[in-house]
């Protein structure tokens, strides 16, 4: 075990990481978490501010100051209760939240030194309490009203859990054979162990949420069917599942994957255990990943673990990479090669139709564009080719069209995202609410959860008013 | 869990076993329209595979699927018996087919394409189209659903490669004959192996006869989430699972589709070998 982030005097407690070599030979979790002593020491770095700015940075408004105070006193269960008042998935968020641009960026300690490691502390309490008895929801006055939640990603999970705590009779419908959404099929095992997601889902079952997998709303059942079945409100948390491609020549060659397909084959279908698990994946010796967001890093680090030499191809420079800094660092430690300022032009294949190379051109950065990032421009006559066996395209995704196509009354914007009232999550159809990536486009776990909670309150108010 | 209500072996010539299963899935049965398919996964370690819905029974909630045993999952499916369960079964998926009424439609099925063709023939017959069905097979023994097809067709032809039954030759031999005989054809629907669909499309293109083909791309989710099922149609990339599986046969890039279907051939063979089948399929 190595202590990678060496602490400076007064710096934050380092988190142990799996050694590089152990890492790339398996799918074990990379970041190993704090010990009790480390957690208490880290919690003591918090100044317990009168006006805790950190809380403003958290999309679900966790009482960060209070939960950290409880950790400092060694009251881990109480700390967990405190977090759970606002966030039902701390073990997940503590691991995958982009803390450095949400809660931690606001932390006062961060101005002069390193911010308090809020995410790591959140993860610590969640992991610590995970094995202990969970809270029981006591629904003496069973409201009995039925609400349907569509999609079991973070938005759906958060909405269902809030509604169950308000004593609604909640049924969650999921198209895939396992609940969890991106947490299950997208984010890899080495960053978010699937056991954690399963445990969270199990907890929902314990508080009375019924979970029906293998049901596609818009196909197996329509929204009208749900109302006819006695559901009084519906929440849509169907995510941003439709992968974008580059639109360049040769993109339908064998060995060219969307990140969604590549990660689903490996994570959900466990192709890394082929042929014991029956779903195959084609990797080869050299893999290129186009894009530089979290999804691209996950795809690259997954390909590395399947034994390939991996290149990340990105149009802009490292500074503009949208992935979390920590993920970029991990990717580098795992010897993933970065081809920045490189723009893919076309793919080359062999006579059997398999991809063999990607032709790119070099770019340079020009004036800042509307997003404030400097716009990349091609350098003339700078074409070069990288030999590859597999290409993974990770350039974003749009909302899945199945529900909206089957429900023409549902208002969407020009990208197909469902339009909602931000205060309540209400859509253009009375009783139908939505939130998460299907509304905002691909965003973050905690934002999707926040939207799920807002909609749960929206639904509650709607059902009370209806009476 | 989804219960197997009935199992029937439709043809068995060693490698070419074709089995029919009724699976209890009342919600899927209720929403089924011709052209739809399902995705299933037999057990925890299984692959998700797509199969066309061949028939439904609203009273028993049964969804009929017909599978040719070509690889590990379809062989495993063939070993199931009534009373067994499969883990996952989801649908109906894909765009429903919309066909003209009171027109002459020639339905062409080759090999296993006969199974997915059956609900379409039945549906066309119900909406009073004039239905001509042409079934192709290598040899007489592997012909399936002949009686059912005959019952719902106004004209019915069989073509076998070896001449053991019906016309000797390919389905296109029969179609060419119909065209030569000046029989007016409004629409051709062709479902079968890629080379067959390509040959039919090449023939009808010359006579400007609208032709629909149903593609059997590789799939993972079947809901538009992954793009495994990409196909080029008229120069544009489409997803077979949400845009299809039926497309204009004159616009499909069949060669690309053929290459994509072969993507995991080596891996599939090694998986089968590990199962002890040695890839020849006599493992029952
Ligand atoms: C590879 C990857 C890595 C990521 N890394 C991070 C990270 O480190 N940190 C972070 O904060 N965010 C990360 N994200 C983004 C984050 O995962 C998403 O923003 C979040 O999951 C969105 O949640 P959601 O509930 O809106 O949708 P999803 O998680 O997409 O869930 C939607 C669910 O709905 C189901 N569904 C869709 N249509 C239907 C239907 N018609 N009927 C029934 N069910 C349906 C889907 O199968 C799916 O299970 C990552 C995303 C990916 C893909
Ligand atoms: C919309 C749709 C509808 C379908 N309907 C039916 C149906 O009604 N009945 C039926 O038997 N099959 C149907 N198929 C094909 C079926 O999905 C495949 O036969 C099945 O996935 C093979 O799985 P396997 O594990 O048994 O074989 P694998 O081990 O995956 O493959 C074995 C061999 O079959 C070939 N193969 C693999 N997948 C396909 C495919 N999709 N099409 C053709 N050859 C393939 C491989 O190249 C290999 O040589 C359909 C496919 C689609 C997309
Ligand atoms: S949920 Fe995310 S943003 Fe909120 S406190 Fe936890 S790590 Fe920070
Ligand atoms: S801003 Fe930092 S120091 Fe202040 S309460 Fe929040 S975590 Fe503690
Ligand atoms: S099968 Fe995944 S998009 Fe069609």
UniProtKB/TrEMBL annotation, chain A:
Gene3D superfamilies: Alpha-helical ferredoxin, FAD/NAD(P)-binding domain
Domain Dihydroprymidine dehydrogenase, first and last residues per copy: 24-132
Domain FAD/NAD(P)-binding: from-to ranges: 145-452
InterPro entries per UniProt: DPD_II (IPR028261), FAD/NAD-bd_sf (IPR036188), FAD/NAD-binding_dom (IPR023753), Helical_ferredxn (IPR009051), SudA-like (IPR006004)
GO MF annotation terms: iron-sulfur cluster binding; oxidoreductase activity
Pfam families named in the record: Fer4_20, Pyr_redox_2
Protein name as catalogued: Glutamate synthase (NADPH), homotetrameric
Species for this entry: Desulfuribacillus stibiiarsenatis
Organism lineage: Bacteria, Bacillati, Bacillota, Desulfuribacillia, Desulfuribacillales
UniProtKB/TrEMBL annotation, chain B:
Domain of life assignment: Bacteria
Protein name listed in UniProt: Ferredoxin-NADP reductase
Bound cofactor: record note: Binds 1 FAD per subunit.
CDD domains recorded: DHOD_e_trans_like1
Gene Ontology terms for molecular function: 2 iron, 2 sulfur cluster binding; flavin adenine dinucleotide binding; metal ion binding; oxidoreductase activity
Keywords: 2Fe-2S, FAD, Flavoprotein, Iron, Iron-sulfur, Metal-binding
Binding site for FAD: 66-68
One Pfam short name: NAD_binding_1
Domain FAD-binding FR-type: 1-99
The species this protein was found in: Desulfuribacillus stibiiarsenatis
GO BP term (any one): pyrimidine nucleotide biosynthetic process
Needed co-factor(s): FAD; [2Fe-2S] cluster
Taxonomic lineage of the native organism: Bacteria, Bacillati, Bacillota, Desulfuribacillia, Desulfuribacillales
Binding positions ([2Fe-2S] cluster): 226, 229, 241
């Amino acid at each position: 075990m190595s202590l990678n982030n060496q602490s400076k005097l007064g710096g934050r407690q380092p988190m142990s990481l799996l050694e590089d070599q152990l890492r790339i030979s398996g799918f074990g979790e990379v970041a190993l978490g704090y010990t009790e002593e480390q957690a208490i020491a880290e919690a003591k770095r918090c100044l317990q501010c009168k006006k805790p700015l950190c809380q403003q940075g958290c999309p679900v408004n966790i009482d960060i100051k209070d939960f950290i105070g409880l950790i400092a006193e060694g009251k881990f269960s109480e700390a967990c209760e405190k977090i759970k008042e606002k966030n039902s998935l701390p073990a997940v968020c503590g691991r995958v939240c982009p803390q450095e641009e949400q809660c931690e960026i606001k932390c006062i300690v961060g101005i002069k030194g390193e911010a308090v490691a809020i995410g790591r502390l959140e993860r610590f309490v969640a992991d610590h309490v995970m094995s202990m008895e969970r809270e029981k929801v006591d629904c003496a006055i069973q409201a009995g009203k039925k609400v349907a939640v569509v999609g079991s990603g973070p938005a759906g999970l958060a909405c269902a859990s809030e509604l169950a705590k308000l004593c609604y009779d909640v049924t969650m419908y999921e198209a895939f054979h396992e609940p969890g959404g991106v947490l299950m099929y997208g984010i890899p095992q080495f960053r978010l162990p699937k056991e954690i997601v399963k445990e969270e889902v199990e907890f929902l079952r314990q508080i009375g949420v019924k979970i029906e997998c293998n049901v596609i709303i818009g196909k197996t059942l329509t929204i009208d069917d749900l109302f006819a079945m006695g559901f009084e409100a519906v929440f849509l948390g169907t995510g941003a599942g439709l992968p974008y491609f580059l639109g360049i020549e040769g993109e339908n060659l064998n060995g060219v994957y969307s990140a969604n397909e590549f990660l689903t084959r490996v994570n959900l279908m466990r192709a890394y255990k082929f042929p014991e698990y029956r779903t195959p994946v084609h990797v080869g010796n050299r893999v290129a990943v186009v894009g530089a967001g979290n999804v691209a890093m996950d795809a690259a680090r997954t390909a590395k673990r399947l034994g390939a030499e991996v290149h990340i191809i990105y149009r802009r420079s490292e500074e503009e990479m949208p992935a979390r800094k920590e993920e970029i660092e991990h990717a580098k430690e795992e010897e993933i090669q970065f081809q920045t300022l490189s723009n893919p032009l076309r793919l080359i294949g062999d006579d059997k139709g398999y991809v063999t190379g990607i032709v790119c051109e070099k770019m340079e950065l020009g004036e800042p564009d509307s997003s404030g990032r400097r716009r990349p421009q091609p350098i003339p006559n700078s074409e070069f080719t990288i030999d590859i066996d597999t290409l993974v395209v990770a350039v974003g995704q749009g909302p899945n069209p199945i529900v909206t196509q089957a429900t023409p009354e549902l208002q969407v914007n020009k990208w197909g995202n469902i339009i909602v009232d931000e205060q309540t999550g209400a859509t253009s159809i009375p009783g139908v609410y939505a939130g998460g990536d299907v509304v905002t486009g691909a965003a973050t776990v905690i934002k999707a959860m926040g939207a799920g909670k807002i909609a749960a309150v929206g639904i509650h108010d709607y059902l009370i008013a209806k009476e | 869990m989804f219960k197997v209500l009935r199992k029937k072996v439709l043809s068995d010539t060693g490698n070419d076993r074709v089995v029919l299963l009724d699976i209890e899935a009342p919600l899927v049965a209720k929403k089924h329209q011709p052209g739809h398919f399902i995705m299933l996964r037999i057990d925890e370690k299984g692959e998700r595979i797509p199969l066309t819905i061949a028939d439904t029974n609203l009273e028993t909630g049964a969804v009929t699927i017909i599978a040719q045993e070509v690889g590990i999952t379809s062989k495993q499916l063939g070993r199931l018996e009534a009373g067994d369960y499969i883990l996952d079964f989801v649908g109906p998926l894909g765009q429903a087919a919309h066909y003209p009424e009171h027109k002459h439609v020639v339905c062409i099925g080759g090999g296993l394409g006969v199974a997915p063709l059956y609900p379409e023939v039945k549906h066309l017959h119900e909406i009073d189209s004039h239905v001509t069905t042409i079934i192709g097979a290598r040899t007489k023994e592997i012909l399936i659903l002949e009686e059912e097809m005959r019952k719902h067709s106004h004209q019915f032809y069989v073509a076998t490669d070896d001449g053991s039954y019906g016309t000797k030759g390919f389905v296109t031999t029969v179609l060419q004959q119909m065209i030569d005989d000046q029989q007016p054809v409004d629409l051709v629907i062709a479902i079968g192996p890629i080379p067959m669909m390509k040959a039919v499309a090449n023939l009808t293109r010359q006579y400007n006869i609208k032709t629909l083909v149903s593609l059997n791309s590789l799939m993972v989710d079947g809901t538009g989430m992954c793009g495994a099922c990409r196909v080029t149609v008229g120069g544009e990339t489409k997803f077979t699972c949400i845009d299809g599986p039926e497309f204009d046969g004159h616009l499909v890039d069949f060669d690309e589709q053929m290459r994509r279907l072969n993507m995991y051939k080596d891996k599939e063979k090694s998986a089968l070998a590990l199962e002890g089948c040695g890839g020849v399929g006599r493992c029952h």
